[in-house]
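Q: What does the predicted 3D structure of Methyltransferase look like?
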Amino acid sequence: MSEPCSKRINPKQREFFNERAEIWDSITTHDDEKVSYITSILELKGDEKIMDVGTGTGVMIPYYESKLDSGSITAVDYSENMIEAARRKFPENEHPVTFKVSDIYNLEMKPEFDLIMCYSCFPHFPNQPLAVSHLTEGLKSGGKFVVAHSASRDKINNVHMEAGKIVSNDFLPQMNELTEMMEKAHLDVIFRRDDEEYYIAVGCKH
């Protein structure tokens, strides 16, 4: 991790999300049926330790929580305002969640998580191969790393191109490119879906 932090994050991008945090839930939608489908692919048993990367306002938290008995969620985002919005919705004293404000590249990763999920956030990571290799350091053997979107790659990329200069170049890679990143990070890619409805890749740590 010798690459300077300033080359791995975009302060203007963080500002973009901080400025929109208060209204984010009113300007974005997530199809419940689609998010439920993504959750079903995770095959949660109930005791998993989960990291939700780019948690935003906590879209995935209730879906994880509905499957957990004794597990826990660490919800991470580099936008402090997004984290604050999520914390108001899911207070830590009422839900099995711990919130953390951090750039993913500055997270200290050790093999403790059963699942690391990047839902609707992967395009915003500078140096995506580094993001995959760094995050997967946090997986236990047999743990899963997931990149998921409830829309097609083309639709996601078009949304970002139209959303403003700050995120206009935040693209999802071709599925074969993501697969290569995951395999180089010592993951077995066990599920892929890349069509008009979804973009999903699941890798399992050796």
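A (community wiki): The structure tokens above were generated from the sequence. The radius of gyration is 16 Å. The chain is about 35% helix and 25% strand.
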